[in-house]
Amino acid sequence: MTYIARLGIWDYNLRNSEKNGGHMRHLYLSLMPEALIASMLSPEEFGNYYAVGAEHTTQGQAVFFEVDPAFRHADIPIETALARCVPHADGQPKHTVYASVYRVLERVPLTAIGTLYLVTKDGRTLGVQRGAEKADSSEGLHLYHELAPVRPLVVSRLGPEPFFRLLCGGSDTPLSIPAITFVELRLGDLATDPLNGSLGDLPYDNTSHLRSCLEQVKSKEVAAKVVDRLHPGTFSYRTIKNGIFIGNKAEGLAAYMLPSMGTLKETNHLWWKSATI
Amino acid sequence: MNSDLWLYIGIGCGLGSIAAALVYYRWVFRQEPGTEKAVQIASWIKDGASTYLRMLYRALIAVAVVLVVVLGVIFSGDPERPLHGVYTAAAFGFGALCSALAGWLGMSIAVKANVRTATACGRSLGQGFNVAFKAGAVMGLAMVGVAVFGMSLLYLIFHDAEIVLGFSFGASSLALLAKAGGGIYTKTADIAADLTGKVELGIPEDDPRNPAVIADNVGDNVGDVAGMGADIFDSYVAATVASMLLGTSFAAAGSIGMQYAILPLILCIVGIVSALIGLQFVKVGPDGKPGKALNFGTVFSCVVFCVLATILFVVVNALAGETVFNYGALIATVSGLVISVIIGFTTDYFTNDEYRPVRNVAEISASGTGLTIITGFSYGLISIAPALIGIVIATLASYFSAQAFGLPGIYGVGIAAVGMLSLTGIVVSNDAYGPIVDNAKGIAEMSGMSHEVVDTADVLDSAGNTAKAITKGFSISAAALTVLAMYAAYSEVIVKYSGGNFLMNLQDPIVLSGIFLGCIVPPLFSALTMLAVTRNAFTMIEEIRRQFKAKPGILAGTELPDYSRCVGIASSGALRALVFPALLAVVLPLLVGFILGPTALGGFLGGAIFTGVVFALLMSNAGGLWDNAKKYIEAGNCGGPGSEAHKAAVVGDTVGDPFKDTAGPSLNTLITVMSLVSSLFAPLIAQYHLFG
What we know:
The complex is a heterodimer. By secondary structure, chain A is of the alpha+beta class. Chain A contains six helices and 15 strands. Chain A has helices spanning 43-52, 78-84, 160-168, 207-219, 261-267, 269-275, and strands at residues 4-7, 10-13, 19-21, 26-31, 34-39, 62-67, 97-100, 113-119, 125-128, 142-148, 153-156, 179-185, 224-228, 240-248, 252-257. Chain A is globular, with a radius of gyration of 20 Å. Chain B has 19 helices and no strands. Chain B has helices spanning 3-29, 36-74, 84-121, 125-158, 161-201, 213-252, 259-279, 290-320, 327-351, 356-364, 369-404, 409-421, 424-446, 451-498, 509-550, 553-556, 563-596, 598-634, 644-687. In chain B, helix 3 (84-121) packs antiparallel against helix 14 (451-498), helix 5 packs across helix 17 (563-596) and helix 6 (213-252) packs antiparallel against helix 13 (424-446). Chains A and B meet through helix 1 and helix 6 of A and helix 5 and helix 16 of B.
C-alpha cells in the first residue's frame, strides 16, 4: 500500500518522504486518435509535443479537450495512468500516459470537459472556450467532418443541432451512437449552388463527388449522405465554418465556436499563420 | 565637339551617378532601423551575406590573378604593341574590380535597407516603398556610374576599344560567378527551407524556428541583388564595348567617323541623366499601388531618354553645322529601347496572375502535378516567341534604319543594344527593390511586428515579384542583342587580323560542328547549376532535420536554431559548384577556336547564343509562371492552401525555382562571357588554329 499525500502540484510519499511533481497532472481527451491521456505538460506544451513529437519528427495536427483532473470512470484506469505519470529520472516531466484508447468519448461527460485545443502541424496551440451561443441552423446545405468515434465526411440538409439529434437522438435508429464530436466545414457557394457554385478557397479533394453528394441531399428526401467513409483524420482549420461540436445522448450538444479567421489573425497571429499555411 | 570632352563628361557623369548613389545610401542609412529584435535579425542576414561575399571575392581574386597573368602573357607577343597584354590585363582587373564594387555597394545597402523598410512599413506603405526603392536606386546608380566611369577612363587613356574589351571581360567573368553562385545559393536555401519547413513540418514562411530562414533571406540578397546586378552590369558594359569596337572597326575602314566609337558611351551618359530624372518621379500614389509606381518610373525614364537623345543629336548637329551623329543611329537606339520595354511587359503577361497563363496553370493543378508541369512548361515555350520576335524586330529595324541613313547596318544593331540597356539605372533600381522588400517582410514576420506591418510589406513584396519578372525578360533580351553585336564585333576582329573575308557557310562541316558544339553549352551549364542546387539543398535538408532532432526546443520556440550552419552549407556549396560551369564558359570557346578555327568558333557562338536565349527565356518565364500560379492559389483561389491544386503547384514552384533563379538568368551571362572570350582572343585565333 502506498501513502501518497497530494499537496498542490506535489505528491509526497508519506513512508519515505519522496517527493514527485512540480508539474500539474492533466487529463486530455484527444480526438486524433480518440484517447484519454494523462500528462504533466500544460495544454500548450502538450499540444506542441503531441503535434511535433519529442524528437521533432512530424506527428501532425492534434485536437484535444482538457478534462477535469478529478474525473474518474470505472471502465478507464485513470488512477493507474496518473500513478505512472511521474517525472523521468532526469526530472523531465512525463509527456503522455495513455489511460484508454477505446470508446473514450462516450464515457467522458460534458460536465468534465473543459477547453478545446486546436493544434497546428508545427505545434501552435489555440484554446477555445465552450460557447453559450447555439450552433447556426440556417437553411442551406452543410458539410460535417465527424472526428470521433468514427471519421466519415458527411453532407446534410440539417444544421448542427438536428444533425446531432439524427445521430445521437434515440435508440430506434440503427445509426444511433452514444456520443459524437464533429466539425462543420465551410461550403461557400456550394451550400446553395452545389453544381455550379465557385469552389473559391475550399481545399477539398474530389470536388466533383462532393458536388454530386450535395446535389443528391438537396434534391432527394435524405437528411444526410456520406461523402467519404474513411476520411483522413485531419482537416484545415481555415475551413471551419463556425466551430466544433461535442455531444452525447444524456447531455445533449455543446458547441465550441471559433472566432472568424479575421479575428484570429488579429488576436492569435502566430496560430493563424500556421493554421492558414 | 572634341571626342575627349565627351570622355571627360562620361567620367564626370559616372562619378556624379556614384555620388547620387552615395547620397541615397546616406539617406537610407539615416532611417530608423527599428526594434532591437528586428536589428538583430537583420544583422544575421547581413553577416551571412558578408560571409558569402567575402568567400566569393576571395575566390574571384584568385581567378582574376590567374587570368590577369594569362592575358598579360598571351597578349604581349605582338611586337607592334608590346604593352597591349599589360594594358588588357590591367583593364580586365579594373573591370572585375568595378563589377565587384557595384555588387558590394548594392548588397551593402540592401542588407541595411531591409530592416529600415520593415520599420518604415509600420508608418505607411508610401514610406516603406520610399526606403526600399531608394536603396534599390543605390545599386542602379552605382552600377551605371561605375561602368561609365570605368569605360570612359580607359578609353580616354588608351583610345583603344580592344583594351576596353578587357574591362568588359573582367566585369563579365565576375558577373558569371556572382550570378551563377548567387543563383545556386539562393535556391539551395529557398528549396531546403520550404521542403523541410513548410511541407514537412508545416512551419510558415519566414518563421524564425526554421534553421534555413536566415540563409533564405541572405540568398535573396546574394542572388537577386548582387547576382542580378552583376548580370545586368555585364550586359551593359558588353553592349557598349561591342558597339565601340564596331564603331572603331568601321571608322578604321573609313565607312564612318571616329565619333561613332564613343557614341555608345554618350548614350550611356544620356541614360544616366534619364535615370536620375526618372527616379525622382517614382512615388506611390494615393491608390497605394507600388507596382504602378515602378512601371511608371520605367516608362517615364524611357520617354525622358528618347527626348534627351533626340535633343542631343539635334543640338550637336546644329552646333557643328553638319551631321556629326547620323539620325539612323538615333532611330536604332530608340527602336532598341522601345522593344526592350515591350519585351519586358510581354514577359509580365506570362508571369502575372492577372492573365490567362498563370490562371490556367493554377486551375489545371487541381488535376495533378503532371499537368501543372506540362502546362507551365508549354507556356514557357510559348513565351519564347514574343521575346524573340521582339529581338528580330529590333535587329531588323536597327539594321535597316542605320543602313538607310548610310551607317553600317550591324553598327545599328549594336547601338540598339545600347539603347535597350540605357534604362539600366532604373531597371536595376526596380530589380534590387524586390529582394529588399522580400527581406523586409521576412524581418517583420520574424521579429514579431504587427500583422498590419507584415501586410504592408506583403503589398510591397508583390510589386517586387512583378518587377523581378520584367527585369528578367529585359535582361535576357538585352543580352541577346548584346551578343549579336558582340558576334559582329568578333567577325570584324577576325577580318582585321586574318586579312581576308569572314564567311560562314552552313554547308561547311567545320561550321556545322561548331554550331552543334555551341548548342551543347547552355543545356549543360543549366544542368550543372541545377544539379548543384539539388545536391546542396539535400545537404541542407539533412542539416535542418538534424537540428530539429538535436534541439527539441527549436519548434517549441524555446531554443534558437544554428542559422550559421545553413548559411555555411549554402555558401561553400555554391562556390564549389561554380568551378566547372565557369571553366566551360572560358575554356570551350578557346578550344573550339584554336582547334577548329574562327569559322567553327563563329558557329559555336551562334549555336550557344540561340540555344542560350531560348533556354533562358523558357526557364525564366516557366519558373516565374509556376511561382505565381502557386501564389495565386495561396491567395484563396482554386481551393487555396492545402488543396490538391496547391500541392501540385508547390511541386511546380519547386521545379521552377532553379529554372528561374539559377540556370535561366545565368545563361545571359554565360553567352556574354563566351562572346567576350571569343572577341578578346580573336586576334590570336585568327592567326593560330589547327583547322578551318
